Amino acid sequence: MLTKRIIPCIDVDLDEDGNPAVYTGVNFEDLKYTGDPVEMAKQYNEAGADEFVFLDITASADGRETMLDTVSRVADEVFIPLTVGGGIRTKDDIKETLRAGADKVSINTAALQRPELVEEGAKAFGNQCIVISVDARRRYDEEGEFYADVDGESCWFECTIKGGREGTGIDVVEWAREAESRGAGELFVNSIDADGTKDGYDIPLTKAVCDNVSTPVIASSGCGGPEDMYEVFTEAGADAGLAASIFHFDEYSIQDVKSYLDERDVPVRL
Q1: Any idea what the Cα angle at residue 111 is, between residues 106 and 117, rounded to 5°?
Q2: N or C: at which end does the chain have fewer Cβ atoms within 10 angstroms?
Q3: Domains of the chain in sequence order
Q4: CB atoms inside a 10 Å sphere around CB 233
Q5: In degrees rounded to 5, what are phi and psi of residue 109?
Q6: What phi and psi, each to the nearest 5 degrees, are found at residue 63?
Q7: CA 124/CA 116 separation, integer angstroms
């Protein structure tokens, strides 16, 4: 079995003075200041994270460019794979983000609006650089393609854009399969319903994606502790577990999580 990856993530926005800052919220709302992105990146690099994710959470919604100067400063502090997302709309945006120091780019809104971008990016920079992110929310109606049983009810998962602000009517599983066929090297699955709750990952969502693709899947949103990581690896089949709050507020360390998993025979890099 391949080693499971533990990935801290920072959600970055501009503060009132226009300076980049890390924020943490619940269900993509009620954001609170958490820290400086460069300092936090340095701390996680030293703490034994397997990878690091930097998300510019309002670039797409605000129609602005990704904060590449900050990305460059973060890249100077981390010596593990760095994924950057937010505001990436074109092949040139991918190129400039990689040039700033990212190893991979995470694309959501632009790929849904123009799926050819996935192929263009994969062809130009390699599949391993292209991470397709989905911000999923549950829907309990008959407009989906792939359904899962959630607490006795049948639901499907809808792709949203602009930080979860707009629905698309596109089924997450259907889109994951298409993104894979177009050359995505990884899938980053976020749950709007679970985001920031610390009630555990959305297992039905993650499992639905993992069961239908062979591309590595990063589970995101809802992690409240090591037991949630264990569950998403063993029950949903995720390849990596992403978390924010539990690490940001020192509830658990990266090593706490890895030790817990190692003791339960989940392969991790210690």
Answers
A1: 95
A2: N
A3: 5-263 (3.20.20.70)
A4: 23
A5: -55, -50
A6: 70, 30
A7: 12
What pLDDT does 30 receive?
Answer: 63
pLDDT of residue 32: 75
Strands (E), 27-100: 29-35, 52-56, 82-85
Q: Return the DSSP state at 47.
A: H
Q: Distance between CA atoms of 168 and 160, rounded to whole angstroms?
A: 6
Instruction: State residue 27's pLDDT score.
Output: 56
155 token code pair: 């639901």
E strand residue ranges, 81-195: 82-85, 104-107, 130-139, 148-150, 153-161, 166-171, 186-191
Note the pLDDT tens digit of each residue in 23-43: 886 655 567 778 899 999 999
Q: What angle do CA 47, 132, 252 make, to 5 degrees?
A: 25
Provide the token pair at 154: 């049948």
pLDDT digits (tens, 9 = 90+) for 163-217: 677 999 999 999 999 999 999 999 999 999 998 889 999 999 999 999 999 999 9
Report the residue count for the chain: 270
- Residues with catalytic annotation? 11, 135
